[in-house]
Amino acid sequence: MKTAKKIDKLNEKSLARISPLVTPLITHWRRPKLVKVEDDQLVYSIRNRKVLQDANQPFEPLKSFLKLAYIEIGEKAEQKIIKFAERWGVLGICREHLLPWSHNDQPTFSDNTLLQLHFRNDRRSCGMPERNGDWSEPLSEWYLWLRLAKAIFSLGLELHQGRNGKAEHWNFMGYKPAYYAGIGKINRSTGLPEPELGKTIVASYVTSWLEVTGVKPRFEWLTTGRIFSLGVSAPDRLLSILGVQIMMLINRSSGLGICTSCGEWFLLRTRQSLSRNVYCEHCGKKAARRDAQARYYKRKKQLIKTGLD
User: Fold this and answer.
1) Which residue among 106, 128, 146, 160 has its CA within the 20 to 30 Å range from the CA of 225?
2) What is the dihedral of CA 296, 302, 306, 307, to 10 degrees?
């Protein structure tokens, strides 16, 4: 099966599990109007155009990004990256550290005492390099993040199917068998982690992606209601969106939920909807049956009491 078809198939499976009541984990971001390549740099204008997503294609940014990862480096790849950046936005790479701009994010102004405590070590925001009045970032960083997304996605797909994953992807992610000796099972002949250990390692890769791209929980209290989402205070959020979408696709989930039994956050599973009670994997069906039975006896008691009255 070709990679593009694998992406489409996984996308369709994930879409089938999405509840219309689930709020997108990252709600909005912006993209530049003009993008071009000069030498080894992707040059772009200020990000002032709002990204509009198709509600029926919530994973389209990640799907398009992964397709870029299978194009050989060259002029064709550069043109594809330009079109992608014009549609979905840029990475936002810090000129000093070659990391996502959000890795050292700081509000320009705030009277929030908690934020002042957090930034009291005088952490300064990192900047992005300007080129003739426009912003720019190295194309080499695009190729790096494309390969990272490709490796994590491919390993997740293989592990879902009970396979160990390809050595080339593990090696690119820096996997070293000796580091995991005694932690989990490793295939003696290949040196690759068995699926159970592999899933733990890939989960750590996704967590690292979210951390380095500055993904944080955000709470908004508006006149229209209260909203919980994941977000980032940096102007460029594309890498944050891609990280969250990788997390969702690997988990084959539609959003976040709070377990009715234990009250812990967890990623929704197949056919779970926030329109009814949801339970994490630890509490599971046992807690659901217990609560259903409790509700049944409560209704029965109320009916008996109503009859006596």
Assistant:
1) 106
2) 50
The model's pTM: 0.76
Of these ranges, 29-38, 103-112, 113-122, 246-255, the one predicted with the greatest mean pLDDT is 29-38
Residue located via tokens 């996997």: 175
Each domain of the chain, given as residue ranges in start order, spans: 23-253, 254-309
